[in-house]
Design a protein that fits this description.
Distance between the termini: 62 Å
Mean pLDDT: 88
Strand order of the largest sheet: 1-3-6-5
Largest sheet: 4 strands, antiparallel
Order of helices and strands: HEEEEEEEE
Shape: elongated
Structural class: mainly beta
Number of strands: 8
């Protein structure tokens, strides 16, 4: 009986730790989407508040050149939103790369693509 309680407590602890990371909930533009007009901004919505000093977002072209306005920031009104402004982008494929640290110091990162036709 005591061993079962220890195992259950350990599982609850692991589940709690796994849920502590800031997980990307949605993005604008959406991952793997195509657009006739270029978006004006990239917005990434996460499951937890982000640490502004350690959260980054970059938009890259096909040659890995950074094409965003280099103004990535955590939104002051919504600390789960990371955003960056885009210039008027030409047709082509683009990759969004992000790395964030949630307020509890857990880091996550990822990337996705979108296309302008």
């Amino acid at each position: 009986m005591a061993a079962s309680i220890v195992v259950l407590a350990g599982c609850a602890l692991v589940a709690g730790l796994a849920g502590a990371h800031a997980v990307l909930q949605r993005s604008e533009p959406r991952a793997d989407s195509s657009h006739k007009r270029p978006p004006e901004e990239v917005r990434l919505y996460f499951s937890e508040r982000l640490e502004p000093a350690y959260s980054t977002l970059r938009v890259l072209d096909a040659r890995d050149g950074q094409v965003d306005e280099r103004d990535a920031r955590v939104d002051r009104a919504n600390p789960t939103l990371l955003r960056a402004t885009l210039p008027s982008l030409p047709a082509g494929g683009y990759r969004v790369r992000w790395r964030v640290i949630s307020i509890d110091a857990d880091a996550t990162e990822g990337e996705f693509t979108f296309r302008i036709e």
